[in-house]
Amino acid sequence: MNATQRRRHIALLRATGFEDSPALTVQSTDGDIPQGRELSFAWLSGTVMTGLTSVLLMGAALYVSFQGQDTFSTAYAALKLASPRIEQPLATDLTSKSSRMRPVAATRSDLEIIEAAIRQTVDGREIIRNQPFVRIQATLATTATSLSGDVPAYDPVAILNKTEPLSKTVLDVATDVYGTDVDGEVAVSQAALPADFIPTRNVSDQGAADFVRGVAQSAYLIDGESQGPALAYAALAPNLRDLSATPESGPTGIAENVTVVPKTLTATEDGLGRTERFLTVRELGPLADTLVRNGFTRTQVSMVESTLANLMPAGGLPEGIRLRILYGPLTKAPESLVPYRMSIYRPEGAPGDRHIATVALSDTGQYVVGLQPDWVEFPAEDVEQINVGNLPSIYRSIWETGRKHDLTDDTIERIIGMFAYDIDMTKRITAGDTIEILETGTTPEAASELLYVGLNLGGTMRQFYRFTAPDGSVDFFDPEGETGKRFLNRRPLEGGGTLRSRFGYRIHPIFKTRRLHTGVDLAAPTGTPIYAGGDGTITYYKWQSGYGNKIEIQHVNGYETAYGHLSRFVDGIGIGTQVRQGQLIGYVGSTGQSTGPHLHYEIKINGNLVDPLSVKLPKDNVLAPQYRAEFDRTIAQINDLMAREPAPVSVAQTN
Questions:
Q1: Burial class (CB in 10 A: 0-12, 13-18, 19+), 553
Q2: pTM of the entire structure?
């Protein structure tokens, strides 16, 4: 900067009011307002004191409004200082109204032991003995907790291995119910009667004649002599009005070609939210067992038991105790909900205060004694307030429910495998969906075996019964005699992929024109294994414009499948190779006209393209006609076991 520029710069500074001045000084005229370069200790101290006073006043106001609370949970001694408002209806009250009500679903979780006399052939001897059965009737879990946090990722191909035919065991005929109870074990032996055997007469001729005469007279008279005779071979049938389900009603009919679609709920907010569960302890037992079945980890159970050591009886939770558990997410994108708070209440009518204790999760991750939450009236049945955004997938819910009822992982995988071909396991359940399970009880001769599964989703019941054919084959069949295994797999890649584009017309992502999408796009990382959708013969095995690397498989009865955009093929296969369902044929890629790694999957029936996700596919195995009568008898016996009263001393309820 030269001298001229320096002078111009100084002139501009003076014109705007800036000038060379001395440094800050504490010298000022007493009582006067300090000037721009003067510092007054009196004004500085006054400003600081004003700020401190404001902070203290605001802190005191907040302390009073929080009723003395300074943490999320307080010590047990402070519980009596802040009694909850009981008379005021609250947003958490199941009976109060608000602009947005959470759905409330009644939960059922019954595990019952039933007994029936069965007939078996053991070492060539026919015996009759009592057999225990385990019956589970429960609503599907509407909250995913740590109980199912370590389940394997959903993989349709892996499920194929869980639906392979079963092997025959000793208890495969355990559904052959004898029809009456027996004490101990009864051996049955059969022998031909001697040809000259004549049974002794226990009824005299006169007695038989009197019996026949009495039956004949009662058949010809109705309600005494005054009603007149009636034909013995023509029973009086009810009239049309008597047959009506609703007397005095007008004409009724059966609606045909009508599909009843259940009411569904959609998520109203992203991510998982809070949900609250109300349940009753049905029998005396350890607190840890109840907590584990309701989503507490073993570490959390230890913390809760330590916190409640001086507040709960040493013998465990007595029968009738009510629990109220609040669940919520631990992070912004959790896979499971964790218990935020648990409150324990005495049964209605019991002496003393209803509220026993509350434990809550603190900011440090510890369970500490907390304040009683705002009071709500406990419903008569166990219920759960549902946050629709929390509803788990069908796959996760079956795992959660199975582990809650102490089913083995192999049994749970078998159950999922039965329904995986007809049901999209990645969809969310609907509140009120239920499951029924029947197993044989564990005996010294054999372990527990699954006999029956019924799954009710959205009002549609699907059932599978275990059946052992006379030829020794064992499988699960629905009431029509079909297995759950489908002829073709709808998502033939590891993990099932993520659906990115459905079958039908769409705007092409590359050409930006409206075109028919001839299959479905299942996105997955490059290199994800692709498997044959069903048994068949490879008819195309090379590059094709638009599809990139492509494989086509010809199946029986006019069915064809195609697999496009593969990154590479599997060595050792080619045109004419016979493949089995679930056999590895290639890997996911993005070859051809593709915007990212995915599998383009097509199904053709007699040359016509169909939607792979919705087309009705034939079952892979059907019960032979000659076994139908025996299978119907098995269904009747299992249904009888599902309807029986439980053993009087062996009833248990999972909480």
A1: buried
A2: 0.57
